[in-house]
Amino acid sequence: MDAFTVIVGLAKTVVVFGATLLLILFLIYAERKIVAFMQVRIGPNRTGPKGLLQTLADGIKLFFKEQVVPSEAKQPIYTLAPLLALLPPFVTLMVIPVGDRVEIGGRTVLLQGAEVGIGVLVALAMSSLATYGVALAGWSSGSKYPLVGGIRASAQMISYETGMALSLVPPVLSAGSLSTRAIVEAQSGTWFGWLPKWFVFPHFVSFLVFMICAVAETNRAPFDLVEAESELVGGFNTEYSGIRFAMLMLSEYAGMVAISALAVTVFLGGWNGPRLAFVGWLWPLLWFFVKLGLLIFAFVWIRATLPRFRYDQLMRFGWKLLIPIALVWLLVSAGLQAFVVARAGA
Question: Taking a C-beta distance cutoff of 8 angstroms, is the pair 337, 199 a contact?
Fold first, then answer.
């Protein structure tokens, strides 16, 4: 491994980490303003122009706030849990291709943190690991309400991770690869000369199941039973304060960005879209972030619109509806693809 490769790898890591943090800061502000607009309120409007610095001010306040640790907390795990919840989304974003490629010093550099042949499996593994951070945060706090939130996180993860994994299989079969870059490249071109060759069209059922499971995996309303302020005070994060609480809050938004980026990659063609030659490599990058913004807006819209599920409804919806639908569509999709391959071979 030469020096150029090492430097580019380190630069990619720093860019992914820094860009994600900046995106999260803007996302928190944008969500507060959008929800306020939908509820006929004003939202942040004091700190900075139009309240733009409100999120930064909140972060500074939490960073310098006193750390209160419960006497009954399991100290090592209590300290480690916020990190375990925050880091997996960044790892997921490392395997997401946000653009095509650029030439630097006569060498081709992929606009992707790291290209691995099993990028989809890495993303699924990181999604599960992030939920363990939430579960351990609740268990290690030494309090009953966070413990209930941690138990709910474990059950919710098992229920909706299964549906999410099943919903990813049909597009992976269509692409013939688990590589996120190969999946994006398989969606280049058009059908019938005008319809983008995105997997959301032939696999819309899988896309719908994936997005519902994504909302549940990130503990967003109406699936936020892990927090459930009205019944669990704050759920798994009740006993956290200061920077540790900020890390748990950031992990929710980082997870939302990561899982939306995965949906853009697998179902919405990634960076693929109409291009302008004079813009060059920036045009695919723009397409990716436009699609990412639309999906994140959908998360916010759902939060502002739908009421919270009861816990029995949450479990029933996952096991008795989403998983059977994902399984049936997987069988149908695999059968159709096998038929097409057989016809082509004949």
Answer: no
pLDDT digits (tens, 9 = 90+) for 277-316: 666 778 889 999 999 999 999 999 999 999 888 888 999 9
> Could you give the residue ranges of the DSSP H alpha helices within the chain?
3-38, 54-64, 75-94, 119-140, 144-175, 180-186, 204-217, 229-232, 242-267, 282-305, 311-316, 323-345
172 has a pLDDT exceeding 80: yes
Q: Which two tokens stand for residue 274?
A: 């109409």
The packing angle between helices 242-267 and 144-175, to 10°, is 20
Burial 234-249 (b: 16+ CB within 10 A, else e): bbbbbbbeebbbbbbb
Query: Mutual orientation of helices 282-305 and 242-267 as an angle, nearest 10°?
Result: 120
Please, what is the average pLDDT of the chain? 90
What are phi and psi for residue 220, nearest 5 degrees? -95, 155
How far apart are the C-alpha atoms of 267 and 54, rounded to whole Å?
A: 34
CA distance 132 to 148: 14
| DSSP assignments along 174-204, one per residue | HHT-S-HHHHHHHT-SEETTTEE--TTTTTH
Q: What number of other Cβ atoms are within 10 A of residue 157's Cβ?
A: 23
Separation of alpha carbons 239 and 140, rounded Å: 10
Torsions phi, psi of 189, nearest 5?
A: 95, -170
Please tell me the pTM assigned to this model. Answer: 0.94
- Structure token pair of residue 142: 């030494």
CB 182 within 8 A of CB 97: no
Contact 178, 121 (CB under 8 A): yes
Residue 321 parent element (H or E): none
Whether residue 20 contacts residue 90, with contact meaning beta carbons closer than 8 Å, is answered with yes
pLDDT of residue 16: 92
pLDDT (tens digit, 9 = 90+) per residue, 239-278?
999 999 999 999 999 999 999 999 999 999 999 888 766 6
